[in-house]
Write a structure and sequence with these properties.
There is one protein chain. By secondary structure, the protein is an alpha/beta fold. The chain is built from 8 helices and 7 strands. Helix 1 packs across helix 4 and helix 5 packs across helix 6. The longest helix is centred in the C-terminal third of the chain and has 25 residues.
Length: 245
Amino acid sequence: MLYSDLVSSAESKALRLRALAIGDRPSSLRVYRFVTGAIRRILFPYLRVKSVNSEVLNLPGPTILAPVHRSHLDSVLLASLSSRRIRALGKESLFRTPGVSWICAALGAIPVRRGEADREALKAAKALLDRGESMIVFPEGARQEGHDVQELFDGAAWLAGMTGARVIPVGIAGTADALGAGDKFLKRATVGIAVGEPMNAPRGPEGKRANRDQLRAFTAELDSHLQSLQDQARELTKTNKDRTS
């Protein structure tokens, strides 16, 4: 490994440890509750957020929320639907900006390096799940476009297999209309969120750790559930029935 890579890795680890320390403070939890409460009171009515089966998000124990990803609004709205504190992975560049880094950490985010396999971030995510927390992992990776679910990565399956965490697939429609890629201002749109039933973590025979083929099979099943839920979320944006959470 080059010296520059070692320095970069050390800086990333320092940012991650700082974010975790800030996120564990009681004051950070109060900030989180204030922000998500404000989002429910202000942003949900403005965006006409409609959801189904959202009570599943409140189940206790280690949980991976696996939603589609079409907008920066996805994680914000999904986290605000749950009574639990939801952790997430965020791009490392945000944690290099004073002020912004504190807010992201206080809201429970963990910095990851985009464009490469950040094993240390996955280890940090595993540690949070091992202590029973709930977190968002976008199986499509970066934001995508269109209605169809794009090819999934095995990150959610791997984390679930390593920790025994349940995986909850979530379809989200309408957020790209409200705040799409490149948009600077929020537009009013109807957002639909369809929460699926929990999927048990992938396991090998006799409770052994799942192998690569089993992780791929789990990811394929997750893909199928996500597309069905995305179709359901899209239908929510077309109905006038009041299902707002």
